[in-house]
Amino acid sequence: MENLSFMMVAFSPINFLLAVLGVAAGIFIEALPGLSATMAVAVLVPVTFGMPPEAALIMLGAIYTGAIYGGSYAAILVNTPGTPAAIATTFDGYPMAQRGDGDLAVTLSTMSSMVGGLVGALALLTLAPLLAQVALKFGSVEYFWLAIFGLTLISALSEGSALKGFIGAGLGLLLSTVGVSVIGADIRYAFGSQFLLGGVEVISALIGLYCIPVLIDLVATPSAHLEPPEEGRGIRFGEGLSLMWRGKFNALRSAIIGTAVAILPGAGGSIASLVSYSEARRTSPRSDQFGKGEPDGVIATETANNATVGGGFIPTFVLGIPGTPPDAVILGALLVQGFRTGPEMFTTNVGVTYTFIGGLFIATLLMLPIGLLIGRYAFKSIVSIPKALLVPSIAFMTIIGTYAIRNNPFDVVVMVVLGVVGWVLSRYGVKPSPIVLGLILGPIAEQGFVQGYLMGNASGSVMGAFFGRPLSLAIIALVLLSVLFPLWRAWRTRSPKETANGH
Amino acid sequence: MATDHETSTLDARPSDRVLAVVMIVIATGAIVFSRDMSIMASVFPRTIATLLLVFSAALLIKSFVVHPRRARPEPGSVGRRLGLIAVMLVWSFALKWLGFLAASLISAAALAVLAHYHAWTPRRVGGYAIALAAIIGAFYTLFAVVLNVPLPVGLLWRQL
């Protein structure tokens, strides 16, 4: 009952207004060509620093919710997914648009996103407190292994080579050690610079790593602009509603798949939507219509990718391990606000957590009217914004946002330098997510590691401290699984080729 | 004849070797510079640097054993990319000296020129200038006035 009253705080006029602004801003940024949901959250995080924690979280959750949904416009109307989570939406959304049903596909996508978002938020509301009870049993060594699990999983599941993912994670962990040490208060890798004493600021780093590479590639070509879509016939709400009713089991199944995939740290909306799309096609009586403009295809992918929003917050809040890359940004924002994620989110900070969950429900419901209106009336204008305005505006937001975190011009320099490094590394196959996660989880991992090391030394067995408890062993088994899975996957994809070559 | 797969990807061996060597240098540097730290402060970075060393060595060996391929990088103008990096770096250093507003207006104008591929007409210049000034002005007001962030005024203007 008390938790319900915390949730009701989200309905205060100011929180409601922030949810409206957040959803609209998320949809707007995501509808812009080349910008991802992670970037939408990253670039707007500093705006929330002056707000009370619950208001800041509501706005960030709303931006994320709007951004994941907003990626579907370009996927449906111009066959260009605004976010990786919307890749599978192009499969049937664009064929629908080609035959003149683009407006119906957008309405279906909006309704599906709302259903998925609500199921994900419901899972967060019901599952997270239960898991937090389990997390209370974790000691420092378990937190160390959990951090390693999150890192190996995101490295293994991120695009490209798993080995490069591990290298990125290692680099991020090393970057997190710059400055005064967590235990012992030694000065590390500062090279005499007083600016580096405070370490690499997490939000500056992730703004740089996620936003600067996008800007560098935006100016490189004139062609990233999307062709404005043809005019649609309207919102077609009634038709959408009847198709949603017909596909209700598909929507529910996809929402559950999306939530479950997002609980797995590192696996984001793109995996969720692809898995639910293939399940929808497998079980549909109209499976031969998939890929040719089947509305159930749009329902499956859009329900699943928005379910990842609530689902991804479960490991983020309970374990401090982000479920998806935008969760990593929100985790960074939580750290800046002075929160320590973990079971504390459901004990000491229970008010903030439940107000945020209430805000997530509001944002998801708001997506329906705001999304339909923007999709119908504003998308054409948004994609027509010229790059000569887009690039300097985003660059300005990254600069002012980074400066505002600690009022420190050096953070801006670090942001730009890390952004350039991130762009170069990305061309060499090292993606930004493992680096960012290493940077965020570094202090948690180090604290657990050093405490385990000290306990092991005191008890005479360092190995016993790290490998002696059943909970630790269970997490180590998951770490091994996440490391071995990509090797098995690579072996499986290679062996048929070798067999074919052999014949 | 090149296959589709070959044209959409590149031989990753040279780039993997460069990446592995750079990472080996960084990891070795992290181990060397941790010598003067206490055991408690050095045990974690040393462990991570050792793991980084192992992964990088594995990448290096892999580049000699198998023939990895990587996605072809996005094409586009190298000059404009370098121009954007230069403007962003100068912008970040100029905040302290020129102040937030002046540095941002000049840099934003430079970025607009870099990102624009068509002919400039007086109408377009005027329209873009007004739009950019409005966006910068709105966010400057949001941070400086509403969120009370003390944005730098600029050492240069103070000396004048």
Task: Walk me through what this model shows.
The complex is a heterodimer of chains A (503) and B (160). The N and C termini of chain A lie far apart (68 Å). A two-stranded antiparallel ribbon of chain A has the order 1-2. Chain A contains 20 helices and two strands. Chain A has one domain (2-502). The radius of gyration of chain A is 22 Å and the shape is globular. Chain A has helices at residues 2-9, 13-31, 37-44, 53-78, 89-98, 102-135, 140-157, 162-176, 202-220, 237-246, 248-263, 269-283, 295-319, 325-336, 350-383, 387-406, 409-427, 432-459, 462-467, 470-502, and strands at 179-180, 187-188. Helices cover 75% and strands 1% of the residues of chain A. In chain A, α7 (140-157) packs across α8. By secondary structure, chain B is mainly alpha-helical. Chain B has two domains: 4-71; 78-159, no CATH class. Chain B is 75% helix and 4% strand. Chain B has seven helices and two strands; from the N terminus they run αβααβαααα. Chain B has a two-stranded antiparallel ribbon. In chain B, α2 packs antiparallel against α3 (39-65) and α5 packs antiparallel against α6. Chain B starts with a helix and ends with a helix. The chains are: A mainly alpha (503), B mainly alpha (160). Chains A and B meet through α8, α9, α16, α17 and α18 of A and α2, α3, α4, α5 and α6 of B.
Compile the SSE list and pairings:
The complex is a heterodimer of chains A (503) and B (160).
Chain A: H1 2-9, H2 13-31, H3 37-44, H4 53-78, H5 89-98, H6 102-135, H7 140-157, H8 162-176, E1 179-180, E2 187-188, H9 202-220, H10 237-246, H11 248-263, H12 269-283, H13 295-319, H14 325-336, H15 350-383, H16 387-406, H17 409-427, H18 432-459, H19 462-467, H20 470-502
Chain B: H1 4-8, E1 9-11, H2 13-33, H3 39-65, E2 69-71, H4 78-98, H5 100-115, H6 122-146, H7 155-159
Antiparallel strand pairs in B: 1-2
Helix pairs in contact in B: 2-3, 4-5, 5-6
Transmembrane segments (chain B): 18-35, 47-66, 78-94, 100-120, 127-151
Protein name (chain B): Tripartite tricarboxylate transporter TctB family protein
Keywords (chain B): Membrane, Transmembrane, Transmembrane helix
